[in-house]
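BUG: 3D viewer hangs when loading the predicted structure for this chain

Environment: internal workstation, default settings.
Expected: structure renders.
Actual: progress bar stalls at 90%.

Input used:
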Amino acid sequence: MSSKTRPASPSKTRVKIVLRVLLIVSILLSLILPALGLNSNRASAASLPVNKKVIVGYWHNFDNGSGFIKLRDVSPKFDVINISFAEPTAGVTGGTIGFTPYKYTEAEFKADVAYLQSQGKKVIISIGGANGQVQLVSAQARTNFVNSMKNIISTYGFDGLDIDFEGHSLYLNSGDSDFRNPTTPVITNLISAVRELHNSFGDSFMLTMAPETFFVQLGYSFYGGTCLSCDTRAGAYLPVIHGLRDILDWLQVQQYNSGPITALDDKYYTMGAADFHVAMIDMLLTGFPVGKNANNVFPALRPDQVVMGLPANANAGGGFTTVAEVQKALNYLMKGTSFGGQYTMRSTPQPGLRGLMTWSINWDQFNNFEFSNNHRTYLDSYGSGTPDTQAPSVPASLRSSNVTSSGVKLDWNASTDNVGVTGYEVYQGNTKIATVTGTSHTVTGLTANTAYSFTVKARDAAGNVSAAGPALTVTTAGSGGGPDTTAPSAPGNVQVTAKSSNSVSLSWTASADNVGVTGYTVSYGSTSVNASGTSAVITGLTPSTAYTFTVKAKDAAGNVSAGTTVQTTTDAQAGGAAPWAAGVSYKLNDEVTYNGKSYLCRQPHTSLSGWEPANVPALWKLK
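Structure tokens produced before the viewer hung:
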């Protein structure tokens, strides 16, 4: 090649002119629309299809030897570009976050963000990194965090937020033992702050997290709030992940710069090999007992919520894994193709695994795009599949309980979906007041002696939302009125849904009450069992014995309805399969009954409402 520059051809010159015009138009739009109170990027944002395999890369807002890249020059192989990093400007505990583009004017940077978005890419702002520690220790710090992040996201039109807290940003106070109900301020303030940001920008606003293995998988062996003489940061991301899992697009644990980690087979695995990546991902797909406490199980994430995090080359981080080793791990995780490794997957093959993340885009370019080119080809071989356009079923049997002068507890039956329900939207009138993953929600801040109308919709990972179920009208209790003396109506349609030699499963339709039903009592002989919803599993029964079950409803004032009865006889053979129930830890090949049919467990898991055997063929095989 000559050192002289050859003159551009006429066709190339025309292309360059078009690109320059597009850049100028993009810059003008980024200046004009905010002045009019509009935001072109956020207004048109839409979530990535859940069945799309993604490659996520971190773009440096600095130069650490890998070289600087303009956003518009990022490899098109990347689907999501994480801008790294927004960092604290008022100290570790101040909460205020700042961001200034490196080697850019603000207008140029906004134009490049818009350019990538015009190509269907997502551009996300990442907070933290190794040097950007953030501790939301107070309510004021939380407020500063929310306000400053709203400003950054709105200014640049980012599509979402990536939480890359490292170092000492997250930790657990002594005695903070339940990841489902954390009490440490840096944890609880972060959860509420991120949820406020998501609610502010809407459902298309993306949320991802990039913790180190120390903060996630190490929680299987040690949990910082409960273990003696161990680091209080161990597993500290778990309550954040769990508290935000209903709005979490994906978790991309950094499977590099890691010490050896104990996997579900209680063996150590070290980074840089396929076994390590399979073992770490399998923990997220299977779930695990936190601190090895069988009563404190972190539930599995959906496959589309799991992304494998890797360094782009040996310069980018410790534990670089060759392309061949990464793809051996992916073949096992997604196809079940064994490579003869030491670790055996507990979960079944998961073709829905979301994709790969790398630190970093800059180091990938430095390494001649080895990561993005090779893995893009591999992931594209799966194709995008058929888009999921089917909405979940309508949530049924919306009911109220614990009605007070200022609040009410709502419960409903789980919806079903062709792929999987990810959460529920709760509406008060026409206003969405909450998004939850379970089948209950407690509404607060209501006015005494006032009628309210509530509805619930179900949504799936692809963003499909069901129609609303029938509206439920609830009248709050008076602040000083007379006593409630009206009993609920009798439960309807009491029926046996499953039985064995020592158990019977019952269901019924919800009762109505002038204030609100708080629960049900199932009686048989001299024994009674309380139930909060419209079903119950009665255990400890005698084989080949006839039983009469009577179901009554009760309200907060102690009024009890008339009873509705059903009769049945337990099966003759003792030791048969038990009825399926939520909250049970099932092992491979465990047998259960559900709706009169027998099922075998395909993979170990702890059951949740909505994961009934007939609804989740990935977990249960019809016998």
